[in-house]
Amino acid sequence: MIPKSISITLRYFFYLLKAKNRHGIHSPFVYEFVCNILNDKTEYAEYMQVEKQRSLLLRNPNLVEIIDFGTGKGKAGYSTHLRKVKDIAAKSGIPVKYGRLLHRMVKYFKPKVLLEMGTSVGISSMYQASAAPNSTFLALEGCASTAEFAATNLRILGASAVEFTMGNFDIVLPGLLKQTGVIDYAFIDGNHTKEGTLNYFYRLEKHAANDSVYVFHDIHWSSEMEEAWEEIKKHESVRLTIDLFFMGIVFFRRELGRQHFIIRF
Ligand SMILES: C[S@@+](CC[C@H](N)C(=O)[O-])C[C@H]1O[C@@H](n2cnc3c(N)ncnc32)[C@H](O)[C@@H]1O
């Protein structure tokens, strides 16, 4: 069997071979996406605020008890153990480049209702919520002690309309969706299994409006995740997808032709 670190390197190599830059794109919608979002080099003031909070997390040596859902490691999960906050932030937090991209996507598409599955200590939550301070931000997390950090960080940033739902996604998502109408934007970053990812997608797509944008993290992280991504791309409600390797972005706009893009980022 090929070790995971090598197989992801190989997958990344194939991605680079296939990925296009803006000159190879013939879809006006995707061309605009690349020019206005991917390639936007503006230093937004919110980046600094988020990254200040992030650097505090990265220096925090305190231990917290975390629930390990065991996803991706072949374990059933639900064990608890102690971990330093700085290690959680370093290992689970979204890299700056991608956090900033989430911020720009939210700023550009202006969703009214955002959902994040997997907040951890709140690094990606801060990037997204700070881009839409007047929108509703629904945060889902199974580990209460890390979610507390997320809640504090979001408060410091002034994100007021944040609603946390704590618990295993498989249990809490159906209940949350029963009380929710359209989800304009979703970021799915937890339980990176094929079954989990597809289960969440099938539930969420029923809440997608024409302009909704759903972002899946780590779509090439394992063969399972690649299979899930391929199935999502084929779903009848999905019109256009953008594969940035570490993220897959799904659009439902019926006016767009059915197309799938691999874009260099
Ligand atoms: C990669 S971390 C999220 C990182 C965060 N999005 C960021 O970039 O700052 C994944 C999170 O999902 C949570 N998680 C994983 N599987 C879960 C499940 N089945 N139910 C609830 N939470 C889960 C974990 O506790 C963890 O905090």
Report on the architecture of this protein.
The chain is an alpha/beta fold and 265 residues long. It has one domain: Rossmann fold (3-Layer(aba) Sandwich), CATH 3.40.50. Helices cover 44% and strands 19% of the residues. It has 10 helices and 10 strands. The protein has helices at 4-18, 28-38, 45-58, 85-92, 96-109, 123-129, 144-157, 169-178, 194-205, 223-234; strands at residues 63-68, 79-84, 113-117, 136-141, 162-166, 185-188, 213-217, 240-243, 247-251, 259-262. An 8-stranded mixed beta sheet has the order 5-4-3-6-7-9-8-10, sandwiched between helices. A two-stranded antiparallel ribbon has the order 1-2. Helix 7 links the parallel strand 4 and strand 5 (162-166). Helix 8 packs parallel to helix 9. The chain is globular, with a radius of gyration of 18 Å. The two termini are 29 Å apart. Residues 72-76 have low confidence and may be disordered. It binds S-adenosylmethionine (SAM). S-adenosylmethionine (SAM) binds at residues 69, 71, 92-94, 118-120, 123-124, 141-143, 146, 168-170, 189-191.
